[in-house]
């Protein structure tokens, strides 16, 4: 694959993500805008990777996952988000107790599925990349912990509580930062 | 730990990517090992030895000062 094709796939995926986020903001009439951005991001990423893959423009990823592992993560993420949406719709329409609690806990099933496919993908990496990912996750875990403790204390001082959706976004951001820091060492 | 991977790879006329594919690791890993930023695990070191048909100690050269230090302590 030449440089032009690589840049083509990066542009396509970037465009997909940007388009998805834009659509997410646009659909704020139907969803909370934070959810719109997350769904838009994931759908944009999914569609653009699919198009890049079908048109043969997909860049060989820097992380060497075993075949199908990355696809499993995408599929499971999609299933998880879809489950959350369906559960929210049912809960907002009013389900009698205790079934509302049962329904809320149902999201744990695809949630744990996501954890399993993610771990499976990390175990499929080679030894250095597995180390980079593990150190990135460790960085994300402790950094997020500190940020959320601090935010909790600031809330006690009078700050409005932050929306729940920011928790995975902040964790994902710290994981990316942690991975970049670790990659610089190697 | 130093190593002779770059030289051995050049002798075979392989790129880092080709070597990575033969060992089922990423090119990033080969680059990190060649530049001395990462020391491979023992199983991976054995794979290098088999691929280049050389004993491990002829590919990976231990830090002599460290070894002498351990020898003195022992």
Provide a quick synopsis of the model.
The complex is a heterodimer of chains A (186) and B (74). By secondary structure, chain A is mainly alpha-helical.
How would you portray this structure in words?
The complex is a heterodimer of chains A (186) and B (74). Chain A is mostly helical. Chain A has 3 domains: 1-60; 67-124; 126-186. Chain A contains 7 helices and no strands. Chain A is globular, with a radius of gyration of 19 Å. Residues 1-7 of chain A have low confidence and may be disordered. With 74 residues, chain B is mostly helical. Chain B has one domain (2-73): Orthogonal Bundle (434 Repressor (Amino-terminal Domain)). Chain B is built from 5 helices and 2 strands; from the N terminus they run βααααβα. Chain B has helices spanning 5-12, 16-23, 27-34, 42-52, 64-73, and strands at residues 2-3, 60-61. The chains are: A mainly alpha (186), B mainly alpha (74). Chain A binds chain B through residues 62-64, 125-129, 185-186, and chain B through 20, 24-26, 28-29, 32, 37-38, 40-41, 44.
Percent in strands of chain A = under 5%
Question: How many helices of chain A in DSSP terms?
Answer: 7
Task: Estimate the strand proportion of chain B.
Answer: 5-15%
Summarize the main sheet of chain B: 2 strands, antiparallel
Overall domain count of chain A = 3
Provide the CATH superfamily of chain B.
lambda repressor-like DNA-binding domains
Helix content of chain B: 55-70%
Largest sheet of chain A: none
CATH class label of chain B: Mainly Alpha
Can you give the mean pLDDT of chain A? Answer: 78
Most residues in contact, chain pair and counts: A-B, 10 and 12 residues
Spell out the helices and strands of chain B N to C: EHHHHEH
Tell the overall outline of chain B.
Answer: elongated
- Total DSSP helices of chain B: 5
> pLDDT below 50 for ≥5 consecutive residues: which ranges of chain A?
1-7
Q: What structural class is derived from the secondary structure elements of chain B?
A: mainly alpha
Oligomer: heterodimer
Order of helices and strands of chain A: HHHHHHH
Whole-number mean pLDDT of chain B? 91
């Amino acid at each position: 694959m030449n440089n032009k094709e690589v840049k083509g796939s990066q542009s396509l995926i970037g465009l997909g993500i940007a388009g998805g986020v834009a659509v997410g903001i646009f659909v704020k009439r139907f969803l909370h805008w934070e959810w719109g951005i997350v769904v838009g991001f994931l759908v944009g990423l999914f569609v653009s990777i699919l198009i890049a893959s079908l048109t043969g423009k997909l860049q060989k990823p820097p992380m060497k996952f075993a075949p199908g592992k990355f696809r499993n993560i995408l599929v499971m993420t999609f299933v998880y988000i879809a489950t959350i949406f369906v559960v929210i719709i049912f809960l907002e329409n009013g389900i009698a107790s205790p079934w509302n609690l049962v329904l809320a806990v149902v999201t744990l099933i695809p949630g744990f599925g996501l954890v399993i496919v993610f771990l499976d993908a990390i175990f499929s990496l080679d030894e250095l990349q597995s180390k980079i990912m593990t150190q990135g996750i460790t960085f994300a875990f402790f950094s997020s912990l500190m940020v959320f403790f601090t935010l909790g204390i600031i809330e006690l001082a009078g700050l409005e509580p932050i929306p729940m959706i920011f928790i995975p976004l902040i964790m994902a951001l710290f994981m990316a930062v942690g991975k970049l820091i670790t990659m610089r060492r190697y | 730990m130093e190593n002779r991977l770059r030289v051995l790879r050049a002798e075979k006329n392989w790129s880092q990517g080709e070597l990575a594919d033969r060992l089922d690791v990423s090119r990033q890993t080969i680059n990190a090992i060649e530049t001395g930023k990462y020391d491979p695990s023992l199983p991976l070191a054995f794979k290098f030895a088999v691929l280049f048909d050389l004993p491990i100690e002829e590919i990976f050269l231990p830090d002599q000062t460290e070894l002498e230090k351990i020898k003195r302590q022992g």
